[in-house]
Amino acid sequence: MDPNSEKIFYKQKSASRCRCFILFGSAIAAFIIGILIGRYVACPDPKTEERREKYLRDEDTTIIEELMNSIDSENIRNNLKILTEKPHLAGDNNTDLGRMLQTRWLQDGLDHVTMTPYHVLLSYPNMSDLNYVELLDGNTTVYKSNLTEPILTPEEDKPGVVPPFNAYSAPGDIHGDLVYVNYARLEDFELLKSMNISVEGKIVFARYGKNYRGDKVHMAEQRKAIGVILFSDPADITNGDTSDVYPHDWWLPPSGAQRGTLLIGDGDPLSADYPAISSAYRAKVDQLYWLPSIPCHPIGYGIAVKLMEQLNGTVVPPEWRGKMNVTYRFGDGFVKPGWRAHIYVTTRNKNATIYNTVGIIRGEFEPDRYVILGNHRDAWVFGALDPSSGTAIMMEIVRVLGAMVKSGKWRPRRSIMFCSWGAEEYGLIGSTEWVEHYVKTLGFRAVAYLNVDIAVEGNFSFWAEGTPMLVNAVTMATKKVPNPNSTEVAAGRKSVYDTWFNTFPDDAKSKPQINLPGSSSDYGAFRDRLGVPILDFAFTSDPKLNLSSYPMYHSVYETFYLVDKIMDRGFQYHRAIGQVWIEMARHLADSLIIPFNVSDYADTLNAMTTTFLKRFKTLLDEQNINTTLLQISMGNFTAAVKDFEKNLEKANLQDPFVVHRINDQLMQLDRSFLDPAGLPNRRLKRHILFAESVIDSYSGSSFPGLSDALVEIQQGHNVTEQWEIVRQHYSVILFAIQSAASTLKNVTDFMVDYY
Question: What is the pTM of this model?
Answer without folding.
Answer: 0.91
